Amino acid sequence: MAFNPKKFIEEAEEIVRKTVGGEKAIVAVSGGVDSFAAAAIAGKALPGRLFAVYVDTGLMRKNETKKVTEAAKKAGLKLKVIEASDKFFSRLKGAEDPEKKRKIIGETFIRIFEEEAKKDKVTYLIQGTIAPDWIESGGLGRDTIKSHHNVGGLPPGMKIKLCEPLREIYKHEVRMVAKELGLPEYIYNRQPFPGPALAVRVVGEITPEKVKIVREACSVVEEEIERASEEAKMELPWQYFAGLLPVKTVGVRGDERSYQYVVVIRAVRSLDGMTANFSHIPADVLQKISTRITNEIKEVGRVVYDITNKPPGTIELE
Ligand code: XMP
Questions:
Q1: Is 153 a residue whose pLDDT tops 70?
Q2: pTM of the predicted protein model
Q3: Contact by Cβ (8 Å): 198, 241
């Protein structure tokens, strides 16, 4: 039977009402379609008892705080912005292993939510977890591909209870739900973005400098691919972004030797994120992206194009 977003919303609202009962809930909006849809459903189910927050982790996309605040206003959500970038960077200092990074981020988010929840006597956390998040996080005989920060990244002994109204559905269904909920198109059609944000696009240890580089590079890739798709040069991929490798290579700038970072261009076609094929970006678009990145980001001396499918790769670099 075809997925019916209207019916799904009614059922999800009922689940939220029953789960949370007469208590209060907090929801964290990240700017992605999943958390916005979960927040909008919870907002309908718990009028006056839902607190929406946005955590600025310092790992977000360019101009994200502004975009999220505006979209929340349009969605009728009263949003509190929590500035926490120092907290995230200091906790992630020295962490190189991808799973360790994911667990630190998951735990830091939860501690922030718990602190907020305590202030307003909130006992539930609404999360926009969708099916691939918990499938990839392992358990029940499944291998852990990666601990999604909102599933395997959750710390033991968590004081707040979870409510996840989107748990059983996939991204294309969430988009239908978000559209039905009346969210703006730039939210329901937005490309997916991982919960641990730019931290999983910087391979290895993150620093504010590396995050800044990848943020700028992601913005160039987004702009150029969106332009190419508007000009009908290519289909808009499921996801398109840049990653930063933990190596420097030698190059020349003017007459001088350079020794700078390597940026990876990643763009994939997918239906649900579980499998993916790399997108065929036309050569002139690749050329433009490469030139812009090396011209606009002085720390980058080389740009490479990732032509790996999932499997054996994953969509993100970590
Ligand atoms: P991977 O990299 O596992 O990604 O092939 C599949 C899809 O999931 C996104 N992703 C995440 N989403 N929390 C999320 O909410 C996470 O921890 C996370 N890690 C990856 C990824 O961007 C892709 O769309």
A1: no
A2: 0.89
A3: no
